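Propose amino acids for all 262 sites.
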């Protein structure tokens, strides 16, 4: 099973359409089964186009995938909040595996999209060769935030976990693996398994270099984008992608791809 997560920083990138093309071409080439995307936006005042609005980043990606011959993908998107005064920003899951169930829920105390700290999580249940697996796309806040505590967000995220099914939590967790007694350690203490740590083959795992939104003043390489599993699994490889070495840069975050024996 091949998984990809990417904070795509949608509609904020220079040469955005070219980068969207690279993303679509890579998805087809690498043949991912499930993809988690964060910062997936649409213009607030754009006209409706089906279930979304014209120019929705995820819809534009699906159109490109279809044009490249990958026609069985389905998307589940959740609105989090309004961003930069003009966007409806959300998180999404795209699957070419059959989807048997979808849901969305808030992990913040705020459920108001006009508040920029409001965060929602979409979940899908996929049928992976007869095994049902839950997948979540996650974009958490910051450890030091007193208004929307990180511990509360983790509790809300994990309280819906099924005891009967394997779950994958994929996304931008906004907490560096190198920091002790903070978010990354909390997630592992709560029973999640970092697929990077389990991987038989891996690289540096670094997904952010330097300053980005929310990490102003940062000068160190960060590993803040993860794919966690709810139980130990065999991970044959974990690689950073879209980092300029393994595919061109398409966002202010690099992506993470893992291959898992299911």
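Proposal:
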């Amino acid at each position: 099973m091949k998984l990809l997560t990417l904070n795509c920083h949608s509609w904020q990138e220079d040469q955005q359409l070219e980068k969207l093309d690279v993303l679509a071409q890579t998805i087809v080439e690498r043949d991912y089964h499930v993809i988690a995307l964060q910062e997936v936006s649409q213009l607030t005042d754009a006209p409706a186009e089906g279930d979304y609005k014209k120019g929705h980043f995820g819809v534009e990606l699906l159109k490109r995938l279809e044009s490249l011959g990958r026609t069985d993908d389905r998307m589940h998107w959740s609105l989090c909040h309004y961003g930069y005064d003009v966007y409806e920003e959300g998180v999404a899951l795209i699957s070419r595996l059959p989807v048997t169930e979808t849901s969305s829920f808030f992990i913040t105390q705020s459920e108001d999209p006009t508040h920029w700290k409001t965060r929602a999580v979409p979940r899908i249940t996929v049928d992976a060769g007869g095994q049902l697996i839950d997948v979540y796309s996650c974009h958490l806040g910051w450890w030091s935030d007193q208004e929307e505590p990180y511990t509360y967000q983790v509790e809300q995220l994990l309280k819906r976990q099924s005891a009967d099914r394997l779950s994958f939590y994929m996304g931008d967790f906004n907490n560096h693996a190198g920091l002790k007694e903070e978010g990354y350690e909390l997630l592992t203490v709560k029973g999640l398994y970092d697929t990077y740590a389990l991987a038989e083959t891996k690289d540096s795992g670094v997904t952010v270099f330097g300053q980005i939104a929310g990490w102003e003043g940062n000068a160190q390489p960060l590993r803040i984008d993860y794919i966690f599993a709810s139980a130990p699994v065999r991970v044959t490889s974990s690689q950073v992608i879209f980092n300029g070495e393994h595919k061109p840069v398409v966002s202010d975050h690099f992506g993470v791809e893992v291959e898992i024996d299911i």
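The chain has one domain: 2-261. The longest strand covers residues 34-43.
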